[in-house]
Design a protein that fits this description.
alpha+beta, Gyrase A, domain 2, six-stranded mixed sheet, five-stranded mixed sheet, 37% helix, elongated
Length: 519
């Protein structure tokens, strides 16, 4: 666990403890004078950059209960801050906590206001820490911190008065349903040096609680006295139960074992300091600028932690890359070894075979050429598919003849007349590579002869069917449609002859189309 400096402050002195590995060191005591503060500064400077937690246990600590309107949001926070400032104008060490809502009326908030009313006791020590730039984490109240002992020592009591003896004196804190309502600190000895009568002090506190209506008539005040086991027998003789008072004695040793403290001592402040060192809550009293060095320290630690995490991530990433590189290198070596084995086996097999007519490279080139011809060689299937799709939309059209060709310019054959007698005929010119689809698929042409049945000399429907067929073909990309012969000669200079109703010789109108398609 991290180191902490825990300081217990009373009106007469300051006790300094070191918290490390869950244990408290022996206290160093400094008087509340100039020499004590100087010695305290030397002590803090020798400890280095260790966070400081200041626990105040002073007589000048006031507690007030208020009923305030239930207001939420920023307006409610301003109302609480304004009421806290009105009650405690002369001290910067103020605190408030909301303890629920009233059960009657408009259900106002129940607010506990508390403050250290004599800041002159605290300010010299805070100023000394600020001068040393010590990281002061918070200023805490021993009374507010003692509420953490209730679930372990005296749970379930509705009216509980917790009494403990500390270096500052005898602390009596009243809790109602587990919430602090009032606390008072008295001297543990009277002016004559004799211990104070604990029963009498309890009676005074009970009378005050009844006067302010925290206790009703007939309510039993359960008083839990925290004391060393060796003093329980003596205190039992002094503190007798009454009709409205019930005493319960708690051994410091048992309380220390409940919170995990090994050496409790004779007073109660090590118990509170152990709670503060193990899990420090937020600062009870505001410190303002005096807390800035702790905030700077926390920001510095956060940046160091982020840098460490970033470096760790980078190292992990580099390590992962090195591991992957090592695996890839091993895999590459294995592949090279396997390739060498395969080459050796291939050479051994080829050495036993007779000489081949064609080399392996030539066979590979032949296979690749065959695959290219199969993929890019001209074929009428694609063009006929386009024609079939157009025929689906023009069922009146019937095909009579198709003539498919590849549009590639062929070289002219050599003239046979210029050859000398007896000479061998010239070899035929090689076909162009484009004719077989090298390097790209060639253009194709399709000559279509079709006919359309004529119904009752209705040549307009014949023309419409042909136009629908040609338009469907023309919609196809990279397909050029040319009408070579129409089913009806509609030229202006053509002569019309015939007899109405006689129809054509065969009763069908023929037309021809030329299609050119570039794949």
């Amino acid at each position: 666990m991290f180191r902490k400096q825990l300081f217990y402050l009373s009106s007469e002195q300051l006790c300094a403890y070191q918290w490390h590995a869950g244990a408290l060191s022996a206290p160093q005591r400094f008087a509340a004078d100039r020499a004590g503060i100087d010695a305290f500064m030397d002590y803090v400077e020798a400890q280095g950059d260790v966070p400081v937690y200041l626990l105040a246990d002073l007589i000048e600590e006031d507690f007030q209960r208020q009923l305030l309107p239930h207001v939420g949001g920023r307006g409610g926070r301003r109302l609480l801050a304004r009421r806290l400032l009105q009650h405690y104008r002369d001290t910067p060490f103020r605190h408030l906590s909301i303890q629920g809502r009233a059960s009657e009326g408009r259900r106002d908030d129940i607010v506990l206001l508390c403050a250290l009313t004599n800041p002159a006791v605290v300010q010299p020590w805070v100023a000394a820490l600020e001068q040393l730039k010590a990281p002061l984490a918070g200023l805490y109240s021993a009374t507010l911190l003692s509420g953490a002992l209730l679930p372990k020592l005296a749970p379930g009591e509705e009216h509980l008065l917790l009494v403990s003896q500390q270096s500052a004196g005898l602390r009596q804190s009243y809790f109602q349903r587990g919430q602090l309502k009032f606390s008072r600190l008295t001297l543990a000895v009277d002016r004559d040096g004799a211990p104070v009568n604990l029963a009498a002090e309890t009676g005074k506190t009970q009378q005050f609680l009844t006067s302010v209506r925290l206790l009703g008539r007939g309510d039993v005040l359960h008083t839990a006295i925290l004391t060393p086991a060796e003093q329980i027998a003596r205190l039992q003789e002094l503190c007798q139960d009454g009709p409205e008072t019930a005493y319960r004695f708690l051994a410091l040793e048992d309380a220390a074992a409940a919170v995990g403290l090994a050496r409790p001592g004779a007073l109660a402040e090590p118990l509170l300091l152990h709670l503060l060192g193990r899990a420090a809550p937020a600062s009870h009293y505001t410190l303002g600028e005096a807390r800035r060095y702790f905030q700077l320290r926390r920001a510095r630690l956060a940046m160091l932690a982020a840098s460490a995490a970033l470096c760790a991530g980078a190292l992990l990433w580099v390590g992962a890359n090195l591991w992957d590189y090592r695996q890839a290198d091993a895999a590459a070596l294995q592949l090279h070894a396997e390739a060498a084995q395969f080459d050796a086996r291939y050479r051994g097999v080829m050495a036993d075979l007779p000489p081949a007519v064609a080399r392996t490279a030539s066979m590979k080139a032949a296979v690749e050429t065959e695959r290219m011809l199969a993929a890019q060689g001209p074929s009428p299937q694609a063009l006929l598919t386009l024609v079939s799709a157009a025929l689906e939309r023009a069922p009146q059209v019937q095909l009579s003849q198709l003539d498919w060709r590849v549009k590639v310019a062929l070289p002219a054959p050599a003239a046979a007349n210029g050859a000398p007698p007896g000479a061998e005929p010239a070899a035929a010119a090689p076909l162009p590579a484009l004719l077989v689809g090298i390097p790209q698929r060639p253009a194709q042409s399709l000559h279509i002869e079709a006919e359309i049945a004529v119904v009752q000399d209705n040549y307009r429907s014949v023309l419409d069917s042909m136009n629908r067929f040609t338009q469907e073909l023309a919609r196809q990309p990279r397909l050029l449609v040319e009408i070579e012969q129409q089913p009806l000669d509609t030229r202006p200079n053509a002569k019309l002859s015939g007899k109405a109703g006689s129809g054509s010789v065969e009763g069908k109108a023929k037309f021809t189309l030329n299609l050119t398609w570039q794949p």
